[in-house]
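Structure ticket #2291
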Amino acid sequence: MRKILLVEKSALWREKIGNWLREEGYYLIAVRDRDVAINCLEKEEIDIILVEEKVLREDSFSLLSFIRQSFPDMVIIALGESNDSFPLQELFSKGVYDYISTSFAPSRILSVIKRAEEKISLLEENKDLKKKVAGRPSFAGITGVSEKMQRVFSLILQVSQVKRPILLVGEQGTGKELVARAIHQYAFSEEKPFFKVLCATLPLEILPREKPEEGTIYFEDVHLLPYKQQAEMLEFLEEYRFGKKSSDLRIIASSEVPLEEKLAEGSFRDDLYYFLNAVKIEIPPLRERKEDIPFLVDRFLQEIEEETGKEEIRVDKEALRFLIEYDWPGNVIELRNTLEGMVILSSSDLLTSEDLPDYIKKRQREELLGVKVGMSLEEVEKILIQETLKFTRFNKTRAAHILGISLRTLYRKMEQYNLSLRRK
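Resolution: structure written out below.
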């Protein structure tokens, strides 16, 4: 039960309200004025304060100001005789949660306190969620400090407490299975089985014989399930989601593409879509959360050290810059595999840009050039010559060699495009 402070000048009302609330099992402290109330608030952990309107208005709402400054989440309920909407509106605008007339029945005050308790519980749950995920580079085996991944972490905690089907949507390599296992981990207070079903290769006729009664069934790549087998899957899901043995069974599905696209194509059943799409979590690709890359690199290198026996593997600044600026179409899995290959092939424990695969460096150089579809050949040629000169630190002979043209042609092109003959 919550601890309640009652501030009421009338001894009669202090006794009446105190008796009602104590009979309901509440711990109640009753005082008569503002100064005693402030002293009590400083020494006791109060959840709800019931305060007479006259006391609340004393000295330009000094008690209310103290509470709002020192205990911003405190639930304040005013007691009084006012029936005028204007002064009541003033109280609400200053943060008073509710107003109870002194002509109330005991059930009225109990009803308001119950609602206040629900509000406090919700605030505590939200604070707890934020503490669990705020600023953490890793959560349930998933690494991410970006705002988008912190949002995913919060959703994992929230959806783990509901028993509706959950759909995870994200590109290949974004970590959908890790998210599914994290939801499973937080859904059960004790260890339960986690069943992984590959929809692309599964003969669904075997499903009814498995008969799982508890734990989580994770349907991977549900977008690849053939249309004819989708009816079998729906029948199976309905039986075990809504049947008598479904109380401890969670259902999670994943898709690499939005199922709305499959629905529009006519390749996915609408009834199965509505069943699976009750709760959806979208997992962002790595290119949309590049601030996570340094943390992922650090985590993966630690794992690779354990696997290879190497120690203190590091990435220099230039190599890390390449890793951050690359778009990673294969997402987290591609990053992990790339680092593993670099460590295996490198003779040093310091990874540099020389250890990076050529396609990563080439891709970045192409992007840095600024060449875009729609440009004329002359515009492209000018950019290429200019960037090659910068790359060779304006060594014309080397630049001409890289471009595959004579030095004389290079000078002519530089004059044609009004390019400087020397480094600025």
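Closing remark: The CA atoms of residues 200 and 224 lie 5 Å apart.
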